[in-house]
Specification:
Blueprint: H1 17-28, E1 35-39, H2 46-57, E2 63-69, H3 78-94, H4 108-117, H5 123-132, H6 141-159, E3 162-168, E4 177-178, E5 180-181, H7 185-196, E6 200-206, H8 209-217, E7 227-231, H9 237-247, E8 251-252, H10 254-264, H11 268-279, E9 285-286, H12 288-300, H13 302-312, H14 316-327, H15 333-340, H16 344-356, E10 360-362, E11 368-370, H17 373-383
Parallel strand pairs: 1-6, 1-7, 2-3, 3-6, 8-9
Antiparallel strand pairs: 4-5, 10-11
Helix pairs in contact: 1-2, 3-4, 3-6, 5-6, 6-7, 9-10, 9-11, 10-12, 11-12, 14-15, 14-17, 15-16
Bound molecules: adenosine-5'-diphosphate (ADP) and magnesium ion.
Residues 4-8, 12-16, 40, 42-48, 243, 268-269, 272 line the site of adenosine-5'-diphosphate (ADP).
Length: 384
């Protein structure tokens, strides 16, 4: 127990009990063949939820959970994606083998051998490997996807289990390259393959509202109505208090919880950062002023390291657009472009890029807003 900057599971996982119960119940119900799509901004707790669901399912003998995040790819090639996903699938199934085989850190070839010894037919795996080893040739994405999903299906059948296949940051698959970017075709292909799966339930997540919209939310998206959609929101004030009170060694005044909640907007990542720093303060009872001071430090230090990197990766124009949004407190396209001294058409293009990167959101009345309130505070400190 304690504050952590890694995904929170087990005793570190706070609240969201209703959602967890619903997910566990639904995913273990043989009569339901729908998975979940979690949508929520970065650092709000999607990975924690999915890993905690996996944790609660781990003793269920009828279930195998395969957890994979597209953001873990380094080169983002189809080859890397395929290799890593296959390794992850095989590793997940290793747990269904007799105990003597449950050795950690086995590589693919060894697991393959063990599966074969244990009587699993893994013809499909051999086929995938032939496909992957073709030299000097663009891989066939469609065949690969069919076969990789086919692999979980085959293994599930043989092990008599249902597989929960979690693909985090799912829309990022369109940026995976195979010569060129796979594009939206990959989402449609997975949708078609997924429809035929009987023993595999797909669950996905995405941080960027816009790309999730294109993949699962809007009526024209490939996965429209194929998932149970869950919007993941930051913590409410009570849960913020729960996180702090559970983990802090000191007492904390209710007013101080309020301040913590308003400064972090209840986003669990920032609460964890705050809690970790508060813990080091030499005081018996944490007061509102302490929280304010510690949060100021965090904006200067920890958060600066994270945001600076992100901010300077943007183009000059994107940075300028963000700057005027905070400097002049404007959100309307017209005002932003006036302050930038650039045409509306040009500026709306940069704003679109920023939306695609998840940094700003378009509100209904054509007003743009910075997505992460802590990022906004940080920008304000720089540009006001
Ligand atoms: N339910 C929770 N209880 C406690 N801490 C949480 C919870 N959910 C998220 N966090 C914390 O917030 C941070 C971001 O969580 P993460 O699950 O990685 O978010 P996301 O996947 O949405 O980016 C981590 O430091 C994690 O420990
Ligand atoms: Mg995550």
């Amino acid at each position: 127990m304690g504050f952590t900057l890694k995904p929170a599971v087990k005793e570190n996982f706070i609240n969201r009990e209703d959602l967890l119960k619903e997910m566990v119940t639904t995913l273990t119900d043989e009569s339901i063949d729908m998975g979940f799509a979690l949508i929520g901004s970065r650092r709000v707790g999607k990975t924690s939820i999915l890993l905690e669901v996996a944790n609660r399912l781990k003793d269920n003998e009828n279930i195998v959970v395969v957890y994979f995040s597209v953001w873990n790819l380094v080169e983002s090639t189809l080859k890397e994606f395929s290799d890593q996903l296959i390794q992850t699938i095989l590793t997940a199934f290793k747990n269904k083998l007799p105990t003597k085989y449950k050795i950690k850190g086995l590589l693919k070839d060894k697991i393959k051998e063990i599966l074969r010894e244990a009587g699993f037919s893994i013809k499909i795996l051999d086929e995938i490997e032939i496909e992957l080893s073709r030299k000097n040739k663009v891989l066939d994405a469609n065949i690969l996807l069919e076969k990789i999903f086919g692999l979980t299906e085959e293994l599930s059948k043989e092990a008599r289990v249902r597989t929960i296949l979690i693909l985090e940051e799912f829309p990022a698959l369109v940026d995976v390259t195979n010569g060129k970017k796979l594009g939206e075709g990959v989402i449609r292909k997975i949708r078609t393959v997924n429809e035929r799966l009987e023993h595999t339930i797909l669950c996905v997540s995405g941080s960027i509202r816009k790309t999730m919209e294109m993949a699962v939310l809007s009526p024209s998206s490939a996965f429209y109505r194929q998932f149970i959609i869950k919007m993941i929101e930051p913590f409410d004030k009570t849960t913020t208090g729960e996180l702090l009170v559970t983990n802090l060694r000191q007492k904390i005044e209710p007013q101080a919880v309020e301040v913590a909640h308003s400064l972090t907007s209840g986003i669990p990542f920032y609460l964890q950062l705050l809690g970790r720093q508060l813990q080091g303060v030499a005081t018996e009872v944490i007061e509102p002023e302490t929280v304010k001071a510690v949060f100021e430090d965090i904006l200067e230090e920890e958060v600066t390291i994270i945001f600076e990197e992100e901010f300077y990766r943007l183009s000059d124009k994107e940075r300028a657009a963000l700057r005027v949004m905070v400097e002049y407190e404007v959100g309307k396209l017209n005002d932003i472009s006036k302050n930038l001294g650039e045409g509306v058409n040009v500026v709306s293009k940069y704003l679109e890029y920023l939306i695609t990167k998840g940094l700003i959101q378009k509100e209904t009345r054509g007003i743009y807003q910075i997505a992460d309130p802590v990022f906004e505070q940080w920008l304000k400190k720089r540009f006001r």
